[in-house]
Amino acid sequence: MTEQRTPPPKLWKSIKHRGGRGDRSALGMWFWDIDRMLLLLTLLLVAVGLVAVGAASPAAATRYSDGKHVVPPLFYLWWQLAWVGVSLPVLLVVSMLPVPVARRMALIGTVACLILLMLVPVIGVQKNGATRWLNLGVSLLQPSEFLKPFFIVTAAWVLSMRAQDESLPVVMITGGMTALVALLLMLQPDFGQTVVFCAVWMALLMISGTSPKVIGGLIAAVPLGLGAAYMFYGTARARINAFLFPDADGIGAADHFQTNAAHDTITAGGWRGTGPGGGAMKFRLPEGHTDYIFSVIGEEFGLIACMIIAFLFLAIVVRVFVKLLDEQDEFRLFAAAGLATQFGVQALISMAVNTGLAPSKGMTLPFISYGGSSLVALSIGMGLLLAFTRRNPFVTRSKYIAHRSGI
Questions:
Q1: How far apart are CA 329 and CA 310, in angstroms?
Q2: % the chain with pLDDT above 90
Q3: Of the candidates 377, 370, 374, 375, which has an alpha carbon nearest to the alpha carbon of residue 78?
Q4: Listing from the earlier edge strand, what are the strands of the sheet with 125-127?
Q5: Model-level pTM?
Q6: Measured distance between the N- and C-terminal CA atoms of the chain, rounded to whole angstroms
């Protein structure tokens, strides 16, 4: 019989709590403090995105192939897999950052992305009639995608400073920041991203307890802003006309075609879909792997699958806001709420465009649409969201911790 050896006492003490609640390593503490349900829902969306890009890739490859250059059918799926391999480590690393480090990174990122955004109209790459990207050689970089999470955290930090000094004009400061970003985006032009930035800023003002008079004034100014965009912004006027007058000839013909193609594709599969690879309408759909991937999902996997995906997005947003109900730190509250709002608003706009409930916009579906810049930027945003919602559940139960309702 062989003699069974026991590990040395010191080694046994170092490993017996590894992975359990007694694990005090940085990775162990992160695992137990992180919102694991939120992380699981995010990974589920990434998995759904890979399936969806795989379904849309043959149609996109056919569309971008010509006599001299043939794109392989699963070209976009392989690239999406590569970007997932880059994005997931970024998400996990950012989620491990302490709150002060995450805030500092967001402030630096906001300044850097604003500089890059200013360079886009000068040296940017034009694609589909818009100049939104910088050519890095290996890939195209869209600065506005990376600016979104950094800007939200920066605006949340500015708004949280009012707790220290009520005389600070935080509404004016954050309003000026939003106006600068909106101006730079309209130069590209990118009306959809402008709407997202403005909507998130207004949501942050509401969450931070800004005066109802100020909120009411801003809401009243929304129709004026839309009217100004319609009068002086040709791209917005063409898309609004195509949305309001779908039967008119010559009004936003390209946007009209996209809207009709998206509607025909998403309804072609009925409730259950045609099955993976069985879609035919997706070959008529422009940008089916990016802006209109929700329609491809509807055709091949059915409207039931679309409803499940919409529920996943809703579950993520609701999960964050429920978790923030007892948050004591104002900065963490504003930052996490703003990031969740941006995530939900972007998903809502993308799905509304695909279903014909909103005018055509260049808006990707978070974690599902193809795109390197979008996927990495969303991973940074979700990593920040996980970092700001990370907490030790045992600390809040301690009788030595004072709460708002107690002394």
A1: 30
A2: 46
A3: 370
A4: 125-127, 130-135, 140-141
A5: 0.86
A6: 65
